[in-house]
Design brief:
Layout (H helix, E strand, L loop, with lengths): L9 H17 L6 H8 L3 H7 L3 H25 L4 H23 L4 H25 L8 H16 L2 H5 L2 H16 L2
Length: 185
């Protein structure tokens, strides 16, 4: 007998919320379906009514976490007319987001931090490629690869201890220098 499609809301959302807390604390491998369902107060059969696998649930947890985050950053990136404007607009928003993320990170397993960073970077690749086109950037390097170089380079820079220790003005200079060198022909 085929499974009925499950709409959003109710127990399904509760499972996603509780699973998110457990994944953050224990990591993906350290969280079992039984642990999740104990938190929700349900049986394993209920889990499989809503989700095909733990992996599918994890994907839903990550999607729920990033939905608003990605939209906010993507809109900011699309609205920038130049690399200078990008740095001036993005850096304060990034700093605030890192403070908010820091509150979550206290109990967050390293595997989840890694997965979230990878998910964030992957989400920005298309919008950065789109922005490069809007800026009229010409390069022998395909736009998607150039976008990847920028996103992964910026990510590596802003997550480094040396960058975090810099004063605001030096952070802007460092990012602008990187952008200018990467985008120069």
């Amino acid at each position: 007998m085929a499974r009925k499609p499950v709409l959003t809301g109710g127990k399904r959302d509760e499972i996603i919320t509780k699973a998110g807390m457990l994944f953050f604390e224990n990591g993906y491998e350290g969280t079992s379906v039984r642990m999740i369902m104990d938190q929700v107060g349900g049986e394993i059969g209920m889990f499989y009514h809503y989700f095909k696998s733990k992996e599918e649930l994890f994907d839903q947890v990550v999607e729920a976490f990033f939905r608003n985050y990605e939209e906010k950053f993507s809109d900011l990136i699309r609205g920038c007319a130049s690399p200078e404007e990008l740095v001036n607009v993005l850096l304060p928003v990034y700093e605030k987001s890192m403070q908010e993320f820091g509150k979550l990170r206290g109990n967050m397993h390293w595997t989840i931090q890694y997965a979230m960073n990878a998910r964030t970077v992957a989400a920005f690749l298309p919008v950065v490629a789109e922005t490069l086109e809007k800026w009229g950037i010409k390069s022998e390097v395909p736009r998607e690869i150039l976008a990847g170089q920028l996103v992964y380079g910026i990510s590596g820079t802003i997550h480094s201890k040396a960058f975090m220790a810099m004063e605001e003005a030096r952070k802007k200079e460092a990012l602008l220098s990187f952008l200018r060198r990467t985008l120069a022909e």
